[in-house]
Specification:
Cofactor: Cu cation
EC number: 1.10.3.2
Pfam families: Cu-oxidase, Cu-oxidase_2, Cu-oxidase_3
Number of helices: 5
CATH class of the largest domain: Mainly Beta
Shape: globular
Structural class: mainly beta
CATH superfamily of the largest domain: Cupredoxins -  blue copper proteins
CATH topology of the largest domain: Immunoglobulin-like
CATH architecture of the largest domain: Sandwich
Strand order of the largest sheet: 13-12-15-20-17-18
Number of domains: 3
InterPro entries: Cu-oxidase-like_N (IPR011707), Cu-oxidase_2nd (IPR001117), Cu-oxidase_C (IPR011706), Cu-oxidase_fam (IPR045087), Cu_oxidase_CS (IPR033138), Cu_oxidase_Cu_BS (IPR002355), Cupredoxin (IPR008972), CuRO_1_LCC (IPR034288)
Number of strands: 35
Strand content: 35-45%
Radius of gyration: 22 Å
Main location: secreted
Length: 574
């Protein structure tokens, strides 16, 4: 395994997913504030064999997972996307701030109309004051089940990590695999109103691993020498599932999350919600041998089905005397509902002080309930949810509806009427015992394209409160165009009188996706310093499809550096 290098560009991994890098001079132009990286992404179908069967999936450049993008803080990316697939598609650069470039953010019908089959669109954006691990993925329908890849951001030239430079640098992308076509799985769920079929396997860098049938030949391996320090960039690209991750007999030192450095701490296991990334250092200090990396579900919704399998990869010491055919040691993973382990992990995350300060004087204090609900329907094939209902999801009892005539950003920028309203409620329309017994009047949400407007520079606080209409559940909530500080988390109903005094305003974790605790709450703060239209949603794709989302409009400030750039000439049309 070669170490990742910022002075290189990606090609397909050999032996399944091994990175080989070429000199960056062929694809990078000189730029006064950083390099410019040019890439072409061809979205296309490819036949792939997993779990003893072959079927066609959607990929980028025929690779699964897709190409790893390796850049430095301050670099610019220019990525031309050609859609040769049979579906509309957009790509989202998850966690990239997209300062003044919301046209490159990617969620379909929010910042752009999708790229239609045969069409092209070029995403142009600059990495500004971000280092660590992000990723990219499709943001249309459920295509991100197979359309995704890592986005690695190295420090600027002449700058170092806030930890010793590792010997090896390896992206570890956790995913889900279905034997069926993923669009068919989505369509069935949306037609019936029931929960979607769960995945047939989890994957590490596209491979299920030794514990599944017909899978051991492709199992991903990391080779290290005794004494090596390995930086693992762990990404949860799973469509619908939070995941635990661990390595047998090895401690992990957490050093970053969501492209923000964090104060180091040791742990045996980490938990990532869909969309989250965690950077960990592994010291190869155990007896030379073979050790499984493993991931399995963290599932919190009562009675809900989930994929209860385990994916594995192998850490193999190069100087192992046991040979490459010995059985690796399997780690012990937490139980699927082990919230205590999850809480112990997340409570240790602390950010390293930076130029970004935690807002203390709040201009917009918001309170959003998040969770699932039901829509009453007549018994039949389109009414297969619990007790003759269809599943729905909402924030503040509003189930988000995407437009189809144009994107929200185009409607805002061009003053197109009739696409959205500005009446998203800042607090729940009705207060109730959110995590207790919920009155039936709150089971069914209203549907609408309701947005909330923020002034440029506003200091924003959002309380995210889980609800128990169907079941309390851990929800990974992602804010596009921003990172934020997680100043508090807890269980039960948020109480401003008692919980506010416990906020961490000194070194709270900095994230772009926050897992709201099951039956609990999380409070985030950020400065609205990036104008545009920004989606705020659950990163479980079934929940997003049911409406667990809303969008913010952040107004322009003063001058060019506080104003949305004009739309590019090749912006797709609906």
């Amino acid at each position: 395994m070669e170490a990742l290098s910022p002075l290189s560009t990606t090609k397909p991994w050999s032996s399944g997913f091994l990175l080989a890098f070429l000199a960056i001079l062929a694809t990078v132009a000189s730029h006064p504030n950083g390099d410019i990286h040019y890439h072409e992404f061809v979205v296309q179908a490819k036949s792939v064999t997993r779990l003893c069967s072959t079927h066609s999936i959607i990929t980028v450049n025929g690779q699964f997972p897709g190409p790893t993008l390796a850049v430095r803080n301050g670099d610019t990316l220019v990525i031309r996307v050609l859609n040769r697939a049979r579906y509309n598609v957009t790509l989202h650069w998850h966690g990239v701030r997209q300062m003044r470039t919301p046209w490159a953010d990617g969620p379909e019908y929010v910042t752009q109309c999708p790229i239609q089959p045969g069409g092209t669109y070029t995403y142009r954006f600059t990495i500004e004051n971000q280092e660590g691990t992000l990723w990219w993925h499709a943001h249309s329908r459920w295509l991100r089940a197979t359309v995704y890849g890592a986005l690695v951001i190295f420090p600027k030239q002449g700058f170092a990590y806030p930890f010793a430079k590792p010997k090896l640098d390896v992206p570890i992308i956790l995913g889900e695999w279905w034997k069926r076509d993923i669009i068919s799985v989505m369509r069935q769920a949306l037609f019936t109103g029931a929960a979607p079929n769960v995945s047939d396997a989890y994957t590490i860098n596209g491979q299920p691993g030794d514990l599944y049938r017909c899978s051991n030949r492709g199992t991903f391996k990391v080779y290290a020498n005794s004494g090596d320090t390995v930086l693992l960039r762990v990404i949860n690209a799973a469509l619908n599932q939070q995941l635990f991750f661990t390595i047998a007999n090895h401690q992990l030192t957490v050093v970053g999350a969501d492209a923000s450095y964090h104060k180091p701490f040791s742990t045996r296991v980490i938990m990532l919600g869909p969309g989250q990334t965690t950077d960990v250092l592994l010291n190869a200090n155990q007896r030379a041998g073979r050790y499984y990396m493993a991931a399995r579900a963290y599932a919190t919704a009562r009675g809900a089905p989930f994929d209860n399998t385990t994916t594995t990869a192998i850490l193999e010491y190069r100087n192992s005397r046991t040979g490459s055919f010995s059985r690796p040691i399997l780690p012990q993973l937490p139980a699927f509902n082990d919230t205590a382990t999850t809480t112990a992990f997340t409570s240790q995350l602390r950010s390293i002080p930076s130029n970004y300060k935690v807002p203390t004087q709040i201009d917009d204090s918001l309170f959003f309930t998040v969770g699932l609900g039901f829509v009453n329907c007549n018994p039949g094939p389109t009414c297969q949810g619990p007790n003759n209902t269809r599943f729905a999801a909402s924030m503040n009892n509003v189930s988000f509806v995407l437009p189809r005539r144009t994107s929200l950003l185009q409607a805002y920028y061009q003053n197109i009427p009739g696409i959205y309203t500005l009446d998203f409620p800042p607090v729940p329309p009705v207060q109730f015992n959110y995590t207790g017994t919920v009155p039936r009047s709150q089971w069914q949400p209203v549907f609408g394209t309701k947005l909330y407007k923020l002034k440029f520079g506003a200091n924003v606080q959002i309380v995210l409160q889980d609800t128990g209409i169907f079941s309390t559940e851990d929800h990974p909530i992602h804010l596009h165009g921003y990172h934020f500080f997680v100043v508090g988390q807890g269980f039960g109903n948020f109480n401003p009188q008692t919980d506010t005094g416990n906020f961490n305003l000194v070194d709270p974790p900095s994230r772009n996706t926050i897992d709201v605790p099951v039956g609990g709450w999380a409070v985030i703060r950020f400065v609205a310093d990036n104008p545009g239209v920004w989606l705020f949603h659950c990163h479980i794709d079934s929940h997003l499809a049911w409406g667990l989302a809303m969008s913010f409009i952040v107004e322009n400030g003063r001058g060019e550096l506080q104003t949305v750039e004009p739309p590019p000439a090749d912006l797709p049309r609906c």
